[in-house]
Design brief:
With 572 residues, the chain is α+β, with helices and mostly antiparallel strands. Helices cover 28% and strands 31% of the residues. It folds into two domains: 279 residues, no CATH class; 163 residues, monomeric porin ompg (Porin). The protein has nine helices and 22 strands. The radius of gyration is 62 Å and the shape is rod-shaped.
């Protein structure tokens, strides 16, 4: 096969992506679109990104080469601003940054079926690179043409290098040439021209991609390795990026032939140059590369699955710990709420008790026969004494305060009383009295007196008060209705003749009870009865505490009908 046929074929392979791009000028969208689960390039590729390197199953390829390899998808139609497929502003359906500087991708609005992107769709599928690079394409023979010799990008130095590789390659069989052509057809032809380095010290090929230069690597160098973008594969040959990481030992070096090579034939009769002979064929290298990449991808996938399982297990454990912590916090919160409610109830109870004491202006009514009651009474008395030590009437106040350990029965108005008595008019009899205390300030009183010729009934109510500064003293105001009935007889003037006289009137009174000590109390007061023409009375008496609930009671009354009695009182 003449060299012109090979160069023509390479030219066709190089210009094929440009033809694809030229055919897509009529496509109504520049970027990419998703159809049938695949991603396809759409419209002309801007020059600013056409030389971008894209990782592929056979190594780094330019964006132009990848779009050409992926091929055309179903027809993209725009009807009144609405596409029949989802379009994207980048070249990989929302998965890449291959856009021009004036196109800014929005992560929340990657795709749309509307030309104005009024509605938004997420990223679509990736390029189907595995399928696109799965099987090599067959390169058709080209008609020899002298004018196409330089279109391959091979300058004179490259041709000389390839020609000087050895006479054995020039004398290779037709099958070797076909293998070389299949090798070249496995990959998309380079978009950039392959030029020779002007320095005579390097005999390999040089590729310029954009602003970067790539030098041909030695035959046994694998395409995998190095930093991203440092190695690319063009026409089955590995090239290294010319940067500070480049090692001279990794560059191509022509093999030294054992015998002197024969002189090169004229250009028009020379056979097609083939790739340098290596230990393995180009096809085997490609298969080994694919196998290594698949193993690397499988190992990476297994590692990602293991990491994902570990993350899921860690997340599950964290969720369990979080739920346990939430339960613990809920339990603590419930306990605190319960304690808070109990504390609030206790405080409300204490507040009600204090309010009652303040409202009554009374000291607590407790029997001092109990140690705790005596102790509390002593504390309250001591407090009152300490509060009034600065007063000029300290001695008088102290005298009016209830001594410690003294029963404050003067403030008890829940009692029954039975008092045998003797009336000046009426003779001997008995007085029964009952009192009911309400709200610590009021009492309801009932009194019945019965004798030989005189009966008396009184119903009323009273208001009583024990000042804090004079706890010995209890002042009582009484009011009620009183009814009396007399049987009058005169055995000398009218034997057997009896006259009954009765009347009803109001009764008002004021008295004071004074605690002398733990055993004795005195009572004295003034009253007025409106029945039987009205009469003022003076009354009094004393109490001797036999037990915490039982007293011996004495009573006297001076008025129209004097009274004197002695009995008992029971506190309930």
């Amino acid at each position: 096969m003449p060299i012109r046929k090979l160069t023509t074929s390479v030219l066709l392979l190089v210009t094929a992506p440009l033809a694809v791009i030229a055919q897509s000028d009529g496509v109504p969208w520049q970027g990419s679109y998703a159809a049938n689960g695949q991603c396809f390039c759409s419209g002309p590729i801007p020059q600013s990104i056409s030389s971008k390197i894209v990782p592929t199953p056979i190594g780094g390829q330019t964006l132009t080469q990848v779009c050409a390899k992926v091929g055309d998808g179903p027809e993209l139609i725009n009807r009144d601003g609405l596409f029949n497929y989802t379009v994207y502003k980048d070249m990989q359906c929302g998965h890449s940054s291959f856009t021009t500087a004036d196109v800014i991708l929005n992560a929340d609005c990657l795709g749309s079926k509307e030309e104005t992107f009024d509605s938004c769709l997420p990223a679509g599928p990736n390029w189907a690179l595995e399928a696109a690079y799965a099987s090599p394409a067959v390169l058709a023979a080209a008609i020899p043409d002298e004018s196409l010799e330089n279109a391959t990008g091979l300058n004179q130095q490259t041709t000389t290098t390839d020609a000087g590789s050895g006479n054995a390659q020039k004398q290779s069989s037709e099958s070797d040439i076909e293998k070389a052509e299949s090798q070249i057809a496995n990959n998309s032809a380079s978009e950039e021209a392959i030029t020779a380095d002007p320095f005579a010290s390097f005999a390999g090929k040089i590729v310029n991609l954009g602003d970067h230069r790539y030098l041909q690597a030695r035959d046994d160098l694998q395409p995998n390795g190095g930093s991203p973008g440092s190695r690319i594969v063009l026409d089955g040959v590995v090239f290294l990026k010319d940067d500070k990481e480049l090692l001279l030992s990794d560059l191509y070096s022509p093999a030294v032939p054992e015998s002197k090579p024969a002189a090169a034939p004229p250009l028009d009769t020379a056979p097609v140059p083939t790739l340098e002979t290596t230990d393995k064929s180009a096809k085997q290298k490609f298969l080994d590369t694919m196998r290594a990449e698949r193993q690397s991808l499988l190992a990476k996938k297994n590692k990602e699955q293991a990491e994902r399982a570990s993350q899921q297990q860690t997340a599950k454990k964290n969720d369990e710990q979080k739920r346990a912590e939430q339960k613990r916090i809920a339990k603590i919160t419930a306990e605190r709420k319960k304690l808070s409610e109990k504390k609030a109830a206790d405080e409300a109870k204490v507040a009600r008790r204090n309010s009652a004491l303040l409202d009554e202006e009374l000291l607590p009514n407790k029997n001092t026969d109990k140690p705790e009651a005596a102790f509390e009474a002593a504390q309250q008395t001591s407090k009152l004494e300490s509060e009034s030590t600065t007063s000029g009437l300290a001695s008088v106040s102290n005298a009016l305060r209830l001594p410690a350990n003294t029963r404050a029965s003067s403030r008890d108005f829940n009692y029954f009383e039975a008092l045998p008595t003797n009336y000046e008019f009426g003779g001997g009899g008995v007085v029964l009295e009952a009192s009911l205390q309400r709200k610590s300030r009021f009492q309801f009183l009932g009194n019945v007196g019965m004798s030989d010729t005189y009966d008396e009934v009184m119903l009323g109510a009273g208001y009583f008060l024990t000042p804090k500064s004079a706890s010995r003293l209890t002042v009582v105001l009484l009011a009620g209705v009183e009814h009396g009935s007399f049987e009058l007889t005169d055995q000398n003037a009218a034997p057997g003749f009896t006259v009954t006289a009765s009347d009803t009137g109001l009764f008002l009174g004021a008295l004071s009870r004074v605690v002398i000590n733990n055993k004795f109390e005195l009572k004295g007061g003034l009253g007025y009865s409106s029945f039987f023409e009205g009469d003022a009375t003076f009354f009094g008496g004393g109490y001797y505490h036999m037990t915490p609930r039982l007293d011996v009671v004495s009573r006297f009354e001076l008025g129209d009908n004097d009274q004197l009695g002695l009995g008992i009182r029971y506190y309930y």
